[in-house]
Amino acid sequence: MNNKFIRIYEDIAGRIRSGDIEAGSLLQSELDLSERYQTSRETIRKALKMLYEEGYIQKIQGKGSIVLDIRKIDFPVSGLISFKELAQKMGHRAQTVVKLFEEQVVDQTLSQKTSFGLNEQLWQINRVRKVDGEHVILDKDYISQRLIPGLNREICQDSIYEYVEQKLGLSISYAKKEILVEEPTDEDRHLLDLEGFHNVVVVRSQVYLEDTSQFQYTESRHRPDKFIFVDFARRK
Amino acid sequence: MNNKFIRIYEDIAGRIRSGDIEAGSLLQSELDLSERYQTSRETIRKALKMLYEEGYIQKIQGKGSIVLDIRKIDFPVSGLISFKELAQKMGHRAQTVVKLFEEQVVDQTLSQKTSFGLNEQLWQINRVRKVDGEHVILDKDYISQRLIPGLNREICQDSIYEYVEQKLGLSISYAKKEILVEEPTDEDRHLLDLEGFHNVVVVRSQVYLEDTSQFQYTESRHRPDKFIFVDFARRK
DNA sequence: AAGTGGTCTAGACCACGCT
DNA sequence: GCGTGGTCTAGACCACTTC
């Protein structure tokens, strides 16, 4: 790999995670680190900026870089992650059932809801996620046929993100997300094991590629007891 | 103000928000900008990095910096914001009622729950938030007496964050947050206008100062229909 | 006063997109 | 090939903490 500052970031991050560098202690100074890694101070600063952004360290002017307790942040459900990645990370027995896979053209209502342009051709996909044997998530996806050609049921059963990034070589860049609690629809009641719960947690997101084109709109409907969202935020 | 790159960030961000620079268009090149603002390219790059992180632009190597549609991100409920700031931003008629204000010493159970050390002296505060006349949020705060001395009911009624930052001159730095849905407690039912809702959305957070000391643990309990969380995330 | 991180510079070379 | 952003450098000066 090329990037020096990323290699340095990974080295230090690894040593913090492994406990080699203790939480609460001070990192070496930027000058020391630039000698140790045989590089300029600005490059060290880039690596430390990444560590800071990921919640590994806190920097204090005149004092140094304090190592934070990463154990409580180690749970990055936040951000942009696919269901498959998440399930793997959590060590859950997870399963996906594709309930619907069809083509769809954007009309007025759908355009309002998804932010796709009128007449755009979409794949419409409904998938139920089974975690530890229970149907707890219903994902309703709308995906651009133009940007993501060649989708099929098999890919949807596995991982759409993997297909987009590995097979198509596209980069998923950013997403706008909205979380709120709603009444279950008949569809929710039918497809999910709601077991007397009176609400579902709905996560609506628009996902964009690196060139700023929107390729996906998703409505992810969770049984409330199985929903958890973890966040690490810095004050602006 | 001193920092050149922040002034440049604010100038460009302002022009994007005002529509002076259109969404979808390309920013001037970094070289052009460095001439325009009479500064080095690295300084321009720092300003653009901020614009990128705040979701104003997307950078594409070899092409330029594309201006994103900020209107849909403009709603930073995400991150670290006080109730007062949020209510002001949303233009709501909001009101806070302090239901409980007393001193508390951390025992085993409380230490588990809040992550404060044993025997630490805390302020324990319960506040109900009224929005447009309805009691929709119950905030249960635990705040370190050692770090935040001189708290009282009046301050809690107004804004604790304002007191910490303005009066005490401390910097709030980062928070770990967890969102989930739970059954309402008797206290919730008593203090909130739940109106037949069977769940509450609970946001648990630990908040830290710049020197990495934890000064606050909060459990914020929301009526589900009044809860919304908006997020802008980049793929790592 | 010494040591730390924060800002800024001017210049170099590389990787990528576009035409 | 040209123009764009991405990386890296070596050095300067400033602001802050600590002793």
Please tell me about this protein's structure:
- The structure is a homodimer of 236-residue chains.
- With 236 residues, chain A is an alpha+beta fold.
- In chain A, 29% of the residues lie in helices and 33% in strands.
- In chain A, β1 and β2 (64-67) form a beta hairpin.
- The longest helix of chain A has 14 residues, at 4-17.
- The model of chain A has no long low-confidence stretch (mean pLDDT 90).
- Chains A and B meet through β6 and β9 of A and β6 and β9 of B.
- The structure holds a DNA duplex (19 and 19 nucleotides).
Could you give the topology of this structure?
2 copies of one chain form a homodimer.
Chain A: H1 4-17, H2 30-36, H3 41-53, E1 57-60, E2 64-67, H4 83-90, E3 94-105, H5 108-114, E4 121-131, E5 134-144, H6 153-158, H7 160-167, E6 172-182, H8 186-191, E7 200-209, E8 214-222, E9 228-234
Antiparallel strand pairs in A: 1-2, 3-4, 4-5, 5-8, 6-7, 7-8
Helix pairs in contact in A: 1-3, 2-3
Chain A binds a DNA duplex (19 and 19 nucleotides) through helix 3.
Outline of the structure:
Chain A is an alpha+beta fold. In chain A, 29% of the residues lie in helices and 33% in strands. Chain A has helices spanning 4-17, 30-36, 41-53, 83-90, 108-114, 153-158, 160-167, 186-191, and strands spanning 57-60, 64-67, 94-105, 121-131, 134-144, 172-182, 200-209, 214-222, 228-234.
